[in-house]
Structure formats: C-alpha cells, structure tokens
C-alpha cells in the first residue's frame, strides 16, 4: 500500500510519551530521530513524503500485546482468518482494509510461487550438474575446442553437449527435488534453518506494497522453500500493523536478524553482502527506492565503487506487486531488481483505464491505446500490460516469458519470468502487434510490428510452416497492416480503428498450467493437502474456483490473440443468439480451431478469418431469419451517431450489408464427435459476495492514528 500520509507536528511524533514501538529509542538509531527533526524543521506539513526516499529496515520489538489468538478482539477491530494466518484489521473507514475478493488472488499466487520454487531448484541443480559433467568429460577426452579444424571442433562440441544432456537427464531421475526445495527454505518452528544445507538456494521474495502483511505471512507459512521475505510499505502504521500480526501468529522466531547480529567474521560479512539475511524483514520505505537499490550492482571491485553502489542489495527471486490501481510506476524498478530467471507477479486494478473507459489514461500509463466498448477488452487489457512489461524489460537487455496471465474479478494478474536474453529482445518486434478494429462490426485484424521468416518459423513452426524446405530470410522487416488486402472492412465497408500496441505472444506456459491443475486435483483427492511425495498444498479456500480458472486457461488457443463474442456477432445482424455448441461446430467443420476464454463465457477464440466467422452467422440467419430492425429517429433524419455525412450518402444498415455479402464458406452445423467432452470444472464462478468489487483507497487522513499504536 503505497500511500502518502499526513503527520502531526514533530513534538507529537517523537515525544517521549508518544513513541510508537518501532520508534522507541531502544530499537531506533538516534540519527534517524534527528533526521525526522530536520525534516520537520523544513516542512511541518508532512514527513512521510520525505520518508519515501529513505528505506528504513528494522526488527520489530515485542510489545505487551498478547499472542493468544483467542484473546478478545479490541473495540473497533476485526479478526480475520485466512488460511493458517489470523489478522487484526481496524474497522475505520478508508484505513488499511481487508477485501475478501482478493483471497483468490493470494491463493493463486501461493500455488504459482510454490511451483516456481521447485522449478528454480531444478534449474540450479541442472546448471551445476552440467558444469560438473563437462569437467569430467574434458578430463577424460580433452577439451573439444582446442584441437582440429573449426568444423571438427563444432562437431565434437555438439557431441559433448548431447552426452552431457543424456547424463544429466539420467541422473535427474533419481533426484528428489521436492526434498531439496523443502530444505532450501527457512521455515522451521524454532526459526533455525532446516538442516545443514537449508537456506542455500531458497527463494527471496519482496512484497513491495505489503500493507498489513497478510500476503507475505501466508507465503511464509504455505510456500515451501522460502528463505527470505521482505515486507515493505511506505506507511509506518501499516508496517506496525504487520508487526502486530507477526506476533499474533507466533512468528517472531522467524524474523530476520540484522547483518551486524549475524556476522561473526570477515568471511561471513562477505557472504552477507551476497545474500539477504534469512527470515522475515519488516521495512518502512518507498517501493521504487527499494527496487532500484536491488538492481544488479556494477561489476567493479569495491575499491572502485562509489558510496551508492556499495549500498546496492542483492536481487530478488520473486517480486510481488499488488498496488491499489496501476503497477506501471513500479515496473521499471521491478524488471531490474528480479534475478535472471526470476518471477514477477503483477496485479493491476485500474480496469477503467485498461478496459477503455479512459483511453487517454491507459496510453499515459502503458503506452497502449485500448478499443472502447470492444468485446475482447478483458484479454486486450492483459496484452497491453504484458506489452508494457516486455518493453520496460527490453531496455535492460531482458525478455519475459508469461507463465500465467488471467483476468479475475475486477483486476488483471500476470506471472512472468524475466531473463537476461539479448536475442529475445531482438525478436521483441515479432511479439508486439497493432490492432485494427472495424468501426461498424466485430471484425478485427492483429498484425505484428515486425516480421522475420526464419525466427517466426523457429518460434512457431505450426503457425509459420516451411513445407518446401526453402531457405528462409533472417532479415527483420516492417509488418503489414490489413490495408494491403482490405483497405476498409470487407463486411461493412467501414474504416478501421487502430489500437495497441499489444503483446501477441502466448499468455501462458501450458506445461506449468497443466501441472498446477494436476496439483489441485491431487490435493482435492487428499482432502486439501498434497501427497507425501509432493510439495504440501495447504487447503485453499478458492481451490475449486482456481481449478475451473486454470482448466479454462488450459483449453485456450495459445497462438490466437483476442476473440469474438457471440452476442455481439448476433446483435450486429439482429439475430437470435446462435447456440455456442453449434457455432463452434461450424468453425471446426470448416477446418479451423476454436476455443473459449477464461473470463468471458460468450467468447469465441478462433484462427478463422473474419469472413468465415461472418459466413457462419449468415448461414444461421438463412435458417433463422432475423427480425427487421426498426430505424431510430436519429437515423431517419440522417443523424446517425458518429457520421457527419448527409442523408443521401449514408451507407446501408450494418445488418443489411453483412447479410448481403456472398458466402465463401461451406457451413455445416453438425456437432462433431467429442466436441462436448470437456474436463469437469467450475469454469465461470459466481460472484464472490454481494456488492463485491474494489474498495475505496486508504487515505492518510483516515488511516489508523498513531495513538492507537501507542496505546498498545
């Protein structure tokens, strides 16, 4: 929760009788107190805005508050239980709040990060094992790069690589990565590492906008293999609330020790600089400052680094951004602060901008322009967000690989892995595209910004085949718009609206998605927990909803951006709605692929061109004639909305123009065998609660006052 709060006068803030616990002299450096005093002398209106530039990390001290979870709830507060965590929240309006709709967000994050933890351990093991096997082969046979001609060295090196892959694959079968993942975490009951090798490779997670800390505490309890979690927030009151919740859940033993407390020798101090101290760290600071201070430090010896470079912190394995509104201000720092191969989890709740209600705001935040009132706005929002993340990462020679991108409730949630990949950055123009939307019907075209025959074939040989085996060009060229073939919409003769740019690559890693489905199904069979030989899955409150969401995602066409909505197609010609099963059957019988979309029940995602989709509508209307549409008074007067043309130049009605087109496709509505066979799942869940939606943003004026903290 990144918010600017108003503070009272300096005497009220650091009076000896009104010290907040985290400002107590016993736990606060005196220099920081004088820093606050200096700030107050310069400006008595606010001190928190200055704190935005100073990230202060501290270890919370024990208070008189009882850690008994059955203790009486103080007046004006509510006790929330979510998973294994109990949290205390103030009931003051616009204070640090709890939104039960976001439970699904946290449950999904726990599932995805748990799976990433094991993938991370596997990758580290494979990298180390390949180096070990290569050294063994070099000792046995010599270095393949030293002798022979260039062609001979290349062949020997290829043989080395194949044999290394075979040996590593064979040894990998006998490795228990689940056990290694568990041992890598700092999660024992007494706060000590689990075994001798514990914590050496576990995840370091940053929750940049922690608020009450519920998300971080659940990560710590429910995700195996977590070594360090940093809970950061700009508001000291929010961090104080998080500290109280740490105590309430009896997790004080897991708090991270400061470097000077854990360092016992010069060697330990060097190790401390390379990695963060294990445990939970509570931190007051600006999120962007923390991200920029966690970028990869320059490859210079310490003697040549300036003071700011010496203060650089290690990068994170996982960064979670869940702001109130847009995550755009934090993306530049986040793509630099995450390790190569690390996971970036981003939530955006500004659907008014991403959904097209405020296109000028969307362009200012994401450098992409939405299509207003489009049927595919849910997917377009995800693709514009991924476009912005990929562009920001590309500035630093990094590429992204979306693992899961979903729309849930009133927000977007994406999980992407970030890699140091200059080749991927060079291919970025193939993953970006422009959107051309007809102004009078649902027809649209998505065209890539750049083209490259060889790279496109290598990335997606099914979509870009090379049946003749001809030599493909490896030159990047400008993409082509639909105007080459259709200068205007072929169905209505209308002009195009231009939207985007947008990400046109895959939204998900289907291997990860299918693995997640298997884990949820296995956990359901075992009454909410994983089997003994798998990573444990705590009972997730929204497990059924998550299962339906992931099943829907797994059924989507991975290489087809955007979709039609059946209701929009039929309403354009004033027809009754075509049964979804019949519509899909017609497209499949015509030789095209078709799927649904996880956020829209009426979505039709297909690789069929526009004229084929409309041919299906035209064939349906022949057997089910649509009702004649009544002309509005504005249309009768020649005042059709959006047109300044005189009455004698107005085009025919959209429905008449579409239905008058000659059909080019043989349409067969026969239901093919197996079309209705789908995995049983709750694909589109009901609303989570009455009057659900985003809550009003917490404001500094109405946040919990410091006196409430001091009285405890």
From TrEMBL:
Pfam families the UniProt entry points to: TRM (PF02005)
InterPro entries: SAM-dependent_MTases_sf, Trm1, tRNA_met_Trm1_C
Lineage: superkingdom: Eukaryota
Reaction catalyzed: guanosine(26) in tRNA + 2 S-adenosyl-L-methionine = N(2)-dimethylguanosine(26) in tRNA + 2 S-adenosyl-L-homocysteine + 2 H(+)
Region Disordered: start-end pairs: 132-161, 252-280, 293-313, 624-651, 677-712
Composition bias type Basic residues, residue spans: 625-636
The keyword tRNA processing appears for this protein: yes
Keywords linked to the UniProt accession: Methyltransferase, RNA-binding, S-adenosyl-L-methionine, Transferase, tRNA processing, tRNA-binding
Bias kind Low complexity: ranges: 302-313
Single GO BP term: tRNA processing
Annotated GO MF terms: tRNA (guanine(26)-N2)-dimethyltransferase activity; tRNA binding
Enzyme class: transferase
PROSITE patterns, sorted: SAM_MT_TRM1 (PS51626)
Keyword Aminoacyl-tRNA synthetase found: no
EC numbers for this chain: 2.1.1.216
Alphabetical list of PANTHER family matching this protein: N 2 ,N 2 -DIMETHYLGUANOSINE TRNA METHYLTRANSFERASE, TRNA (GUANINE(26)-N(2))-DIMETHYLTRANSFERASE
Entry protein name: tRNA (guanine(26)-N(2))-dimethyltransferase
């Amino acid at each position: 929760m990144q918010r600017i709060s108003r503070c009272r006068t300096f005497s009220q803030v650091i009076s000896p009788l009104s010290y907040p616990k985290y400002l107590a002299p016993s736990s606060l450096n005196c220099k920081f107190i004088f820093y606050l005093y200096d700030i107050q002398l310069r400006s008595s209106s606010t001190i928190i805005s200055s704190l935005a530039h100073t990230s202060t990390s501290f270890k919370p001290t024990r208070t008189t508050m009882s850690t008994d979870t059955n203790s009486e709830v103080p007046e004006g507060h509510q006790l929330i239980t979510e998973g294994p965590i109990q949290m205390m929240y103030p009931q003051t309006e616009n204070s640090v709040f709890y939104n039960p709709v976001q439970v699904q967000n946290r449950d999904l994050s726990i599932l995805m990060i748990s799976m990433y933890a094991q993938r991370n351990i596997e990758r580290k093991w494979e990298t180390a094992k390949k180096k070990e096997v290569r050294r063994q082969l070099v000792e046995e046979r010599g270095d393949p790069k030293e002798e022979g001609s260039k062609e001979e060295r290349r062949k020997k090196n290829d043989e080395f690589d194949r044999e290394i892959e075979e040996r590593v694959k064979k040894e990998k079968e006998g490795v228990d990565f689940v056990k290694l993942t568990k041992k890598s975490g700092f999660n024992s009951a007494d706060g000590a590492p689990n075994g001798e090798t514990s914590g050496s490779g576990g995840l370091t997670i940053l929750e940049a906008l922690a608020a009450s800390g519920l998300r971080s505490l659940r990560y710590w309890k429910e995700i195996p293999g977590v070594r360090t979690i940093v809970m950061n927030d700009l508001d000291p009151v929010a961090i104080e609330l998080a500290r109280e919740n740490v105590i309430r859940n009896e997790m004080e033993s897991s708090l991270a020790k400061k470097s000077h407390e854990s360092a016992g020798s010069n060697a330990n101090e060097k190790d401390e600089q390379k990695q963060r101290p294990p445990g939970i760290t509570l931190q007051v600071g600006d999120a962007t400052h923390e991200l920029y201070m966690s970028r990869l430090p320059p490859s210079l010896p310490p003697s040549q680094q300036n003071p700011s470079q010496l203060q650089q912190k290690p990068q994170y394995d996982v960064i979670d951004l869940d702001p109130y509104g847009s995550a755009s201000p934090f993306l530049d720092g986040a793509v630099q602060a995450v390790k190569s191969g690390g996971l970036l989890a981003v939530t955006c709740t500004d659907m008014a901008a991403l959904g097209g209600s405020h296109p000028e705001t969307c362009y200012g935040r994401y450098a992409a322009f939405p299509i207003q009132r489009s049927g595919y706005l849910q997917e377009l929002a995800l693709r514009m967000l991924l476009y912005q993340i990929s562009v920001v990462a590309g500035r630093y020679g990094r590429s992204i690989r979306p693992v899961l991108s979903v729309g849930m409730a009133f927000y977007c949630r994406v999980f992407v892995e970030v890699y140091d990949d200059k080749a991927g950055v060079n291919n970025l123009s193939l993953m970006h595209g422009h959107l051309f939307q007809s102004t009078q019907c649902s027809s649209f075209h998505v065209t890539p910004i750049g083209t490259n025959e060889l790279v496109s074939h290598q990335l997606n040989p099914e979509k870009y085949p090379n049946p003749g085996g001809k030599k493909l060009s490896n030159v990047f060229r400008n993409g082509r718009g639909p105007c080459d073939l259709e200068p205007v919409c072929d169905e209505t003769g209308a002009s195009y609206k231009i939207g985007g740019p947008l990400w046109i690559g895959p939204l998900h890693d289907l291997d990860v998605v299918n693995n997640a489905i298997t884990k949820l199904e296995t956990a359901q069979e075992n009454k909410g927990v994983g089997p003994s030989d798998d990573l444990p899955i705590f009972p997730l409150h929204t497990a059924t909803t998550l299962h339906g969401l992931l099943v829907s995602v797994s059924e989507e066409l991975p290489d087809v951006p955007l979709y039609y909505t059946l209701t929009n197609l039929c309403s354009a010609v004033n027809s009754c709605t075509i049964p979804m099963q019949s519509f899909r059957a017609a497209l499949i019988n015509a030789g095209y692929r078709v799927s649904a979309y996880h956020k829209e029940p009426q979505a039709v995602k297909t690789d069929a061109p526009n004229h084929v989709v409309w041919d299906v509508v035209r064939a349906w209307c022949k057997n089910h004639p649509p009702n004649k549409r009544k002309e509005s008074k504005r249309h009768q007067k020649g005042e059709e909305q959006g047109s300044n043309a005189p009455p004698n130049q107005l085009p025919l009605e959209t429905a008449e123009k579409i239905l008058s087109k000659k059909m080019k496709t043989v349409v067969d509505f026969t239901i093919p065998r197996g079309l209705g066979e789908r995995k049983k799942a709750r694909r589109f869940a009901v609303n989570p609660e009455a009057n659900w939606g985003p809550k009003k943003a917490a404001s500094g004026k109405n946040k919990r006052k410091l006196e409430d903290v001091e009285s405890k």
